[in-house]
Amino acid sequence: MSRTESSVLERIVKSYDVRGLVGSELTETVVEAIAAAFVDEVGAAGGDVVVGRDMRDSSPGFAAAFARGATARGANVVDIGLCSTDESYFASGTLDAPAAMFTASHNPAAYNGMKLSSAGALGLSFDTGLRSIRDRAAEFLESGIPAVDQPGTVRELDVLASYAAYLRELVDLSGIRPLRVVVDAGNGMGGLTVPAVLEEAAGLPALPLTIIPLYFELDGNFPNHEANPLVPENLVDLQRAVVEHGADLGLAFDGDADRCFVVDERGEPVGPSAVAAIVALREIARVRAAGDDDISVIHNLITSSIVAETIEGAGATAVRTKVGHSLIKAEMKATGAVFGGEHSAHYYFRDFWGADNGMLAAMHLLAEFGSQSEPLSSFAAEFSPYSDSGEINSTVDDIPAAYTRIVEAFAGRGEFDELDGLFITGLTSIDEPFWWVSVRPSNTEPLLRLNVEAGDRETMERLRDEALGLIRATN
């Protein structure tokens, strides 16, 4: 094993997953070592470990390498083959087994990676296991993976049909009005899961949905556009198709299909915060009807203020958290929250082991929207009353100096908290609408991330430009 392979672990083990360039950073040798370390870290010897993969060209080889490393340390690999990330969470939850999903999500074809979960689909972060896995894998790369007396086995299991049936149990779409829905799978795993869940590919009854597919062919080279709906140009084809087909709405999934983005009948985006507010109302109403009055819902601090307002207006407790996938999954477990929403279109469900599921969020939206007669643009407007900047990244060499400039400029104008970077809530008056400004450092790069929301566009743009000027003052 080379020292280069050992040191590359420092670069590819991130805050919430493993991700790197195929060949130069992520190799089958490195994957074997990570697999062996993962089995040791989660105590999986003698038990099952779920392994799933997306459609990237490198994923089959990496999944096989993971199986070699895992079985060498005594784990029994359950190979679920091609799947979405939330399908791998389903397998982890139903089997109560740790899981590894091979995907680089929305990243370009040159990348691949792993999303690792302990039993019950509980995510691992750098502070809850990934650091230890990285360090143990480095030792294995230096000295080799010691085999156990009883190596594990490999068996295949197809969970797509049971995954689809489970989601249909959680959200009943059979009684909604007929809807025409354009779905852009971006050549990612939505091309496998959408026909199973929303159509009849898994043998389930037909729903009152006409699905108009875009780029359902699984192709890890992403020949049409990157499978990253957060980038506006990657929504253009969906927006055009919705208008051309006279569809009621459009859905766009990212590469591993764990996030879902929405556009209305005009092709205009419906913000993830609006979707989070809509789903939160449904989940609050559902559990209250079942007799639960102590209800909490999680939202990260840069979701629109409408999310917390909606949660509290429905009589539930809004739990504000830092930004971060594995962190929110842990918070879902700790608080027993029924639902959690992020600005990035990750949506978490107590009934899905606290894990995120973009398909389930889409189904909730379809159920609520399809139960009334207004077009989506009108229906969603109630949940999008404010103006936001979106996330703006700036490369900053001296982050403390930038923080000092911001604090000095906004002193006396707002209340500060440091839950996650700097968050400033405006001291509003009769002359100024409400506003907030969030400035957060990246976990992995010398970046500051700016988000601004205000009661009107003029105020948002003024604060956005002021904050950007302060952030970039010496750059």
TrEMBL record:
UniProt organism field? Agromyces atrinae
Uppermost EC category? isomerase
Q: Does the keyword Magnesium apply?
A: yes
Q: What is its EC number?
A: 5.4.2.8
Record keyword RNA-binding present: no
Domain Alpha-D-phosphohexomutase C-terminal positions = 391-467
Q: Give the CDD domains listed for this entry.
A: PMM_PGM (cd03089)
**Cofactor(s) recorded in Swiss-Prot or TrEMBL:** Mg(2+)
Q: What is this protein called?
A: Phosphomannomutase
Q: Read off the Pfam families from this record.
A: PGM_PMM_I, PGM_PMM_II, PGM_PMM_III, PGM_PMM_IV
The UniProt similarity line reads: Belongs to the phosphohexose mutase family.
Q: Which residues belong to any copy of the Alpha-D-phosphohexomutase alpha/beta/alpha domain?
A: 12-125, 162-267, 278-383
Give the molecular function GO annotations.
metal ion binding; phosphomannomutase activity
| GO BP term, pick one | carbohydrate metabolic process
Q: Give the record's keywords alphabetically.
A: Isomerase, Magnesium, Metal-binding, Phosphoprotein
